[in-house]
Design goal:
This protein is of the alpha/beta class. Strands 6-5-14-13-12-7-11-10-8-9 form a ten-stranded mixed sheet. A four-stranded antiparallel sheet has the order 1-2-4-3. Helix 1 crosses helix 2, helix 7 runs parallel beside helix 14 and helix 10 packs parallel to helix 11. The longest helix is centred in the N-terminal third of the chain and has 27 residues. It is elongated and about 85 Å long. This is Conjugal transfer protein TraS. It holds the Pfam family FtsK_SpoIIIE. Keywords: ATP-binding, Nucleotide-binding. GO terms for molecular function: ATP binding; DNA binding.
């Protein structure tokens, strides 16, 4: 009987170990919740003071505190580390809010983040300033970008606003969102097979669910954006159509400025809801197709389109028209006006690129230290990108996998939200009926003798 009990105990232990090993490889969230988080919490609590001391994140106490410790508590005076105010757990990692003592700044903690990561045995440590004197250590227990799973719930301060779209996952486990009120225009670059199209699908799928108008410019004959036609208020598939559509958008912008002037406000959101025009997001799939010309006679059209895009980028934010410009490469070599347009595109998302110069064109003027991160994105991880903005901050992100069929299905589901704009009516794409489930795509023809 004792031998049978021993066999059962050994088999149970082996099964538990095998289950944990499988969870670590295939379901890291489960492994982190069951094993990683408790171990990391114990290691963090036990070694916190010593780790902060060896990492140079302690300061000498004030004279009053040193006097009280020496004469009242009868203890040896020791350096003071940041005070832990709050520790929280999630399915991806652990967060600790620290109160910095006088003499330390957030940059000091950021500089030691790699040493803290190794000391506490976590995958990464990111330092975020919460408010003056307080920082938050965002520790991830595993590589959250390996299998992207968006958070089920987003903080209220992140989703506050009428034009907020969760697009990707940051490497610290938080959601990367496009907030068009904060960052009205953006540039997305990336080589072929880098995940740039996946980013656009997630963005369009999120925008399709909001009360906004979507305008597409896809000069590759609409192969990328043609499927989104049920949710598009306008679509241009050739340079000639793009020229006319941009002219119509500039006219719409000027009419909206007249409306703002009539009501004495300077922003679209200051208008009464009854007369407020719907916001518009202009999605440019391949911006190089608008710049490059094959003959000298096309240069005049190119100059008109570029001038109109620059006008939209400079002024259209106030009237609720926003630009999402995408391309494989975007720099001064495209032609006159490229640099002026890029300077107006505040948000930058850089996927894997073919050369360092492309990353420098997109990130060098806002976050130079992010250029190296963009040039080291591995080719076997499509969807990984570096996102930055004019504040100088940047982070690695990755979009969840989404097929073209899934994005098209979302656009068809929310086609009833597509606004009708008189100025864009000539460019409204024709919408074909969705094929019935199980029905053949081609009608059979009888064989003739």
């Amino acid at each position: 009987m004792s031998d049978l009990s021993t066999v059962i105990e050994v088999a149970g232990a082996l099964s538990a170990a095998g289950g944990l090993g499988y969870a670590k490889a295939r379901s890291p969230r489960v492994f982190w919740s069951l094993v990683g988080a408790p171990v990391a919490r114990v290691r963090f609590t036990v070694t916190y003071r010593a780790t902060m001391d060896v990492c140079g994140l302690t300061v000498q106490p004030s004279r009053l505190r040193a006097f009280m410790v020496r004469n009242v508590a009868r203890q040896e005076v020791q350096p003071v580390p940041p005070q832990v105010r709050r520790v929280r757990y999630s399915s991806t990692g652990m967060r600790a809010t620290l109160r910095l003592p006088a003499g330390l700044e957030p940059a000091d903690v950021s500089a030691a983040s790699e040493r803290l990561r190794h000391a506490w045995g976590v995958h990464s440590v990111h330092v975020v300033e919460v408010k003056p004197g307080f920082v938050e250590l965002r520790m991830t227990g595993y590589d959250v970008l390996r299998r992207v799973k968006m958070p089920r719930r987003l903080p209220r301060n992140v989703t506050a606003g009428p034009l907020v779209v969760p697009v990707a996952l940051r490497e610290d486990g938080t959601a990367f969102v496009r907030d068009y009120q904060k960052v009205p225009h953006a540039l997305t670059v990336g080589a072929n097979q880098s995940g740039k199209s996946m980013y656009q699908r997630n963005l369009i799928s999120g925008l399709a669910k909001l009360p906004v108008g979507l305008v597409g410019i896809d000069c590759k004959r609409g192969v990328e954006q043609g499927g989104y036609a049920p949710r598009l208020s306008a679509l241009a598939v050739t340079p000639d159509e793009a020229d006319g559509l941009l002219e119509a958008l500039v006219g719409e912008m000027e009419e909206r400025f007249d409306l703002l002037s009539d009501h004495g406000v300077s922003d679209l959101w200051g208008l009464p809801a009854a007369v407020r025009p719907v916001p518009l997001v202009v999605l440019v799939d391949e911006v190089a197709e608008l710049f490059l010309v094959a003959a000298k006679k096309d240069e005049e059209r190119r100059d008109r389109m570029v001038m109109r895009m620059i006008r939209l980028a400079q002024m259209a934010r106030a009237v609720g028209i926003f630009l999402e410009v995408c391309g494989q490469r975007f720099g001064s070599d495209l032609g006159k006006g490229a640099t002026a347009l890029r300077a107006q595109l505040t948000g930058r998302v850089v996927h894997r690129v073919n050369d360092k110069q492309t990353a420098e064109m997109a990130l060098g003027d806002i976050a130079p230290e992010a250029v190296f991160a963009a040039t080291t994105i591995p080719p076997d991880r499509p969807g990984v990108a570096v996102a930055g903005d004019s504040s100088g901050g940047w982070s690695r992100i990755r979009t969840p996998a989404m097929t073209p069929a899934e994005a098209v299905a979302v656009c068809r589901e929310y086609a009833h939200l597509t606004p009708h704009l008189a100025a864009l009516a000539p460019f409204r794409p024709a919408v074909s009926a969705a094929p019935a489930p199980g029905s053949p795509l081609l009608k059979p023809r009888p064989a003739t003798s």
